[in-house]
Structure formats: C-alpha cells, structure tokens
Amino acid sequence: MNGDAAGLRILDISVEGFWRSFAAILFVVLFSLPVLVAEPTLLAGEGGQATATRAPMLLQIVAILVDWVAFPLIFAALARPLGLGGQYVPYIVGRNWSSVIVSGIYAAVLVPYLLGVLPAGIVPYLLFAVFGLALRFSYLVARIALGVPASLAVPIVVLEVLVSLVVEFTLGRSG
Fold first, then answer.
1. pTM of the model
2. How far is CA 101 from each of CA 30, 34, 133, 146, rounded to the nearest angstrom?
3. How far apart are CA 17 and CA 13, in angstroms?
4. Side-chain half-sphere of 3: how many Cα atoms within 13 Å?
5. How confident is the model over 28-48, as pLDDT tens digits?
6. C-alpha span between 101 and 89 (Å, rounded)
7. Where in the chain are the domains?
8. Cβ distance 91 to 152 under 8 Å?
9. By C-alpha distance, which of 81, 63, 101, 97 is closest to 156?
10. Helices 57-79, 150-167: crossing angle, 10 deg rounding
11. What are the pLDDT digits (tens) for 152-171?
12. Whole-angstrom distance, CA of residue 42 vs CA of residue 88
C-alpha cells in the first residue's frame, strides 16, 4: 500500500491468472458478511431500531457479485481507447486481489463491533478511515499496474466507485 510495485509483480498476470483472479470474490464475499450483518444496526444508531432500507442478504450478495464483474467489463471497453489495452490484465488482476485485502480490513473493524468489543460510536469513523485507505490502495494499483499518471488514475478510481454505487443503490438497497 506504499506505492511499491513489488507486490504487483508477484501476481500471475497471464490470461489464466486473470481468470483465476476472479475467484478472489470468494474471499471478498466472506469478508463482506460482517458488513452485511452489522450495517442495519450501525445505520440505526445507538438505541435505534435496525433499518429496513437494505435488501435481503442474498440480494446483497448478488449485488456484490454484479459489482465484481461490472467494473472490469466497463473498463474492458475503455482500456483500448485510453491506450491501456496492454495493461488491462495486470490491472484487473491487481484490482481483484487487492479487493481481498481491503474487504479484510473492513471485516477487521466490524468483527470486534459485532462481538461487542468495539463501541458503535467509533465504528463509523474507523470505516471512514478504511474507505480512505481503500481509495488510496485503488489509486496505487491503478497508477502502478496501468503505468499512468495521477491525472488518469484518479478518474479510473472514481469510475470504479461510481459503478459500485450504482450497483449498490440498484440491487443492494432494493427490497
């Protein structure tokens, strides 16, 4: 997460490695379970009723799966026009595996909360910090794997976040 390209060099960036990197979703879903369980009570606040703004958990998991493939498909259409066709595979491989790390960090915050060790009042601040860390991590993966300047890495990360938000508010909040 410090901008060192060595981490990305250990990844299998072959076509086979590209397809295998999508299996990382298994870990992402596993690490997302604490998020899905904790979110209703966190949204309600201390002493409040759990909110009903979320879709059933199965639909939320479907939203995670759709999100998992949506950005790579959209970016596949953009990579060649942006002159990044040759870096598409390494970028998506890096993105997929780095998502496991980020989702694990979210879980590391929420599991202590669910166990009653971490007070609810501090959790939103920690999650905000993790979100900032996730943005930084996504930015570094884009810069390093794509070999692009900040002026292109930032819009790519913004696009990824926007795609996730559209999927989340379309599927993850229905019900």
1. 0.86
2. 12, 15, 11, 19
3. 5
4. 5
5. 999 998 888 887 777 766 555
6. 19
7. 6-172
8. no
9. 81
10. 150
11. 999 999 999 999 999 988 88
12. 37
